[in-house]
Design a protein that fits this description.
Length: 114
């Protein structure tokens, strides 16, 4: 059996791992074992936070809608209830955008409910 020297392959593997952790601090950017751990944790957090992002945005939309609805003596929940009862199919994302960027249009939507 011939002898196999793995130096180049090992160096290539290390180089690829360290390239992924460029910008990390301390040993995580220079040591392969720490870098591997950092990559694993970063991947797990990235996956979880992609899921969290959806609920974070929905929360933000609710706040924007409620803030604008209060100007017309409505609460968020009453506004959504009236929208559903009147079969107005605006989702929260669109309502929040109207509340922030087109308050006049939002006002017309609220007036249609009364």
């Amino acid at each position: 059996m011939s002898r196999v020297k793995r130096g180049t392959i090992k160096n290539k593997s290390r180089k690829n791992v360290l390239a992924q952790v460029k910008g990390y601090r301390f040993g995580r950017s220079t040591k392969k074992r720490s870098a591997n751990d950092a990559i694993a944790h970063a991947g797990a957090n990235a996956f979880n936070h992609r899921k969290d992002k959806k609920s974070d945005f929905r929360r933000l939309w609710n706040i924007k809608i409620n803030a604008e609805a209060r100007k017309y003596d409505l609460s968020y929940s009453r506004l959504i209830d009236k929208l559903k009862k009147n079969n107005i199919g605006l989702n929260r994302k669109m309502l929040a955008d109207l509340a922030e960027n087109a308050p006049a249009t939002f006002k017309r939507v609220v007036e249609n409910l009364k």
